[in-house]
Write a structure and sequence with these properties.
124 residues; alpha+beta; globular
Length: 124
């Protein structure tokens, strides 16, 4: 993945998910001023954007999606890596997550947690 950490990004998140909203606010606090470069979009209110980028509402719930510069989609763990890389002091964590023997099991755990959350809330 090319260096996208200085590009304008739009993060699609699930505004109907209390955990997702809480995570968004946590990230905004971590990001501080740098977080102003990140636009957060509740995908439940941006149906045409999902259609434009061919993202189903289910896929949007199952994986984090980031739109880079209005043209490119980054999703799943790569989206989290990109999000973390937007904050200079979290870049080492983003780098660490990229390591293949870290990334693969972390991706499985991420999917497990999302599936569990959606089942628990009756959305899957």
């Amino acid at each position: 993945m090319e260096n996208l950490s200085n590009k304008k990004i739009q993060v699609l998140y699930d505004g109907a998910c209390p955990t997702c909203v809480k995570d968004r606010h946590f990230y905004e606090r971590l990001a501080g001023v740098k977080g102003e470069d990140i636009e957060w979009l509740d995908f439940n209110q941006y149906g045409p954007l999902l259609v434009k980028f061919q993202i189903s509402p289910m896929d949007a719930m199952l994986e984090l999606h980031i739109i880079v510069e209005g043209t490119q989609i980054v999703k799943e763990l790569d989206a989290y890596i990109l999000l973390l890389s937007h904050i200079s002091w979290l870049k080492p964590l983003a780098w660490f997550i990229k390591i293949p023997f870290i990334k693969a099991p972390l991706a499985k755990y991420y999917h497990y947690r999302v599936q569990r959350r959606l089942k628990r809330t009756g959305r899957l």
